[in-house]
Design brief:
The chain is globular and about 65 Å long. Helix 7 crosses helix 11, helix 7 packs parallel to helix 12 and helix 9 packs parallel to helix 10. The chain is of the alpha/beta class and about 400 residues long. It has 2 domains: about 210 residues, PUA domain-like (Roll), CATH 2.30.280; about 160 residues, 3-Layer(aba) Sandwich (Trna Endonuclease, Chain: A, domain 1). It is built from 12 helices and 19 strands. The strands form 4 sheets. Strands 1, 3, 4, 5, 6, 7, 8, 9, 10 and 11 form a 10-stranded mixed beta sheet that branches. Strands 13-14-15-17-19 form a 5-stranded mixed beta sheet. The chain has a two-stranded antiparallel sheet with strand order 2-12. It is about 30% helix and about 25% strand.
Length: about 400
């Protein structure tokens, strides 16, 4: 496979951000590339070298398949942050009594990260990998540290509630920063495994974080627009959620205009600093389904920036095109920005024109909606359906 590291070389290679590392050819668990690359075992999302009981963890590997709808781990390449969920993923046990003790590790990592230099020096290197596209291959996503700039203390590690049937339970939602390090050398990995990570081979951004708690995130600018595939959910349950949304407003209520209120709520969930929002009348909207304000600055001295919102409740096979997009853009007033929310996706031409012409328009597509609902605790279409019926009831 071009550009990937063969299985037989994994124990010798450095780690490069977004590099693919191949699995083995045997057809069993021995093909796991992480175990060959690093002595951390071959199962689970939390893998580590050392002892949790002995408080001697020397290296942590976080692995995500990106395929669990209830626990949507997510890397944001534009801010350099990682949202990662713990390993208490079903009812029946306390938050910290998981088999792999991943939540215990998370608690210790974040406790020490919030302490002084001496406490941060005991935080082991945290390496993030995601599932590749073929077989057992994995992709290295970066070197992470607990917490993130702009995230308030106490909000970086949060115990969130979930429910399965009538049983409720808690799991951690953790926020990490992915550091601006393109290469993690084999020498530093070996030093960390020996218990001495702060050697000459230590990455500069890691040392800066340990010494001064300075975050240096790996941020990137979007060069291209998102493709149709990137704008729609990859999971079947995610697609079902969009179908339920579309069906409820277009078929059950027979009133797609009612989706505008839902679109405002979705926007507010993704942008909590949203202030007052007024839904406009269908025959007088002037190309805008809602107008509102987004609040900037400290609570004692807010600056309100106006926005106009457009909503389209389309089936996932129908795209938002140039005509609909132009309608919103042409009606944005001076110093306003736009928000376009759709249950489907934006076609290539409309997306490119918005970005290339630098129009101030936020685009929320189907995948974004599924992610927003998941962060709000709604990961199943039945949960979304119940929420819609309660919040946007019909006339009966």
């Amino acid at each position: 496979m071009p550009g990937s590291v063969p299985f037989e070389l994994l124990d010798q290679t450095d780690l490069l951000v977004d590099q693919v590392y191949e699995g083995g050819p045997s057809g069993n668990v021995g093909d796991d590339p992480l175990q060959r690359m690093l002595p951390v075992g071959n199962q689970g999302g939390f893998r580590y070298k050392g002892s949790v009981q002995g408080d001697d963890i020397r290296l942590v590997v976080l692995y995500t398949s990106g395929e669990h709808p209830d626990w949507p781990d997510r890397v944001d390449p534009f801010t350099g942050t990682l949202t990662y969920f713990g390993d208490n993923r079903r009812p029946g046990q306390e938050l910290h009594t998981t088999t792999r003790q991943g939540n215990t590790i998370l608690r210790r990592l974040f406790e020490r990260a919030s302490g002084g230099q001496g406490a941060r020096a005991t935080v082991p290197p945290i390496l993030l990998f995601s599932k590749g596209e073929h077989g057992r291959e994995v992709v290295f996503r970066g070197l992470a540290v607990p917490a993130a700039p702009g995230v308030a203390p106490g909000d970086d590690l949060v115990a969130v509630w979930r429910a399965v049937g009538q049983q409720r339970f808690q799991n951690y939602r953790a926020t990490f920063t992915i550091l601006d390090e393109a290469v993690i050398t084999r020498q530093w990995i070996d030093d960390a495994l020996s218990g001495t990570p702060l050697t000459h081979a230590c990455p500069p951004t890691w040392r800066k974080w340990v010494d001064k708690r300075v975050f240096t995130p790996l941020v990137s600018e979007r060069i291209n627009t998102r493709s149709r595939k990137e704008q729609l959910p990859s999971s079947e349950e995610g697609r079902r959620i969009l179908e339920v949304l579309h069906g409820y407003f277009n078929v059950t209520l027979e009133d797609p205009v009612r989706f505008e209120a839902c679109a405002v709520d979705l926007w507010r969930m993704s942008a909590p600093n949203t202030g007052e929002v007024d839904l406009t009348r269908p025959w007088r909207d002037g190309g805008r389904d809602a107008v509102g304000s987004y609040l900037l600055g400290p609570p004692a001295d807010r600056l309100a920036v106006e926005f106009a919102l457009e909503a389209k409740c389309y089936g996932i096979g129908n795209s938002v095109g140039v005509r609909e997009m132009s309608r919103l853009i042409s009606r944005l007033r001076y110093r306003q920005f736009g928000v376009f929310v759709t249950t489907s996706y934006f076609d290539d031409q409309a997306y490119k024109e918005v970005r290339q012409d630098q129009h101030p328009v936020v685009l929320l597509c189907g995948r974004d909606i599924v992610d927003i609902l998941a962060l709000g605790g709604m990961t199943k279409h039945k949960e979304v359906e119940k929420w819609m019926k309660a919040r946007y009831p019909g006339s009966e």
